[in-house]
Amino acid sequence: MSSNIRIVLIKTWHAGNIGATARAMKNMGLSELYLVDPVDFPSEEATSRAGQATDILQSAVVVPTLGAAIKDCALVIGTSARDRSIALPALTAEQCAEKAVLEQSKTPVALVFGRERMGLHNDEIQQCHFQVNIDANKEYPVLNLGQAVQILCYEIFKASQSQNTPKSIEEPYPLHEDLVRFQEHLEQTAYDIEFINRKHPGQTLDHLQALFRRARPTRKELSILRGFLNAAQKNHGKSD
Q1: Is it the case that residue 158 has pLDDT exceeding 90?
Q2: Three-state secondary structure call for residue 41
Q3: Which residues, 6+ apart, have CB-to-CB distance to 163 below 8 Å?
Q4: Binning pLDDT at 50, 70 and 90, where does residue 239 land?
Q5: Are the CB atoms for 94 and 135 separated by under 8 Å?
Q6: Among residues 150, 145, 127, 12, which one has the least CA distance to residue 69?
Q7: Please, what are the domains in the chain?
Q8: Is the pTM of this model over 0.85?
């Protein structure tokens, strides 16, 4: 069982996909389902599609935003078949599962699935640390939501049973909410020291924030970075 790995569905349109997700999760030993602003839930169709996994639907956590669903997670992996202008490190389904099983021993891990038709928005994928791509036939590589969830849950089940998967990480990573506070501090510092023009910010901050997500500083390293930002602000007379 991988009890600290949650499945997050964003703005799911078809209630049947929520039920299918619950069933796939229970098949593979997962139990934490988070629903971000679902269109139709609770739903009889979701209950019908869930089979014997209605307990997962009953305990599902419904939240208004992705940030609320992942605030206490230190690893967030988004599913996407599209290339992005600011790319994330890409994982295969197997690598995704191995990393999730490894890190869930320390803090919660989230696997994020987007809308049925358009997937994750750019601002949502940029809240993730990695992007997972599921290999498929190049002539028709698009999986429906239930299929994608089932494949990743299966890979997680395999990784959790494997004797080759390390049991824990040595250095804990910061939670999503801690990283958000760092990014807000970084933004404020960039304006305070006039590194970025408020009237014409461009994409500099987006690239800086993506850089630190890719780098994945540990909690200790993030604390050092916050101290660096405080010193920069103090030197310019803008420290709190």
Answers
A1: yes
A2: coil
A3: none
A4: low
A5: no
A6: 127
A7: 5-161 (3.40.1280.10), 176-235 (1.10.8.590)
A8: yes
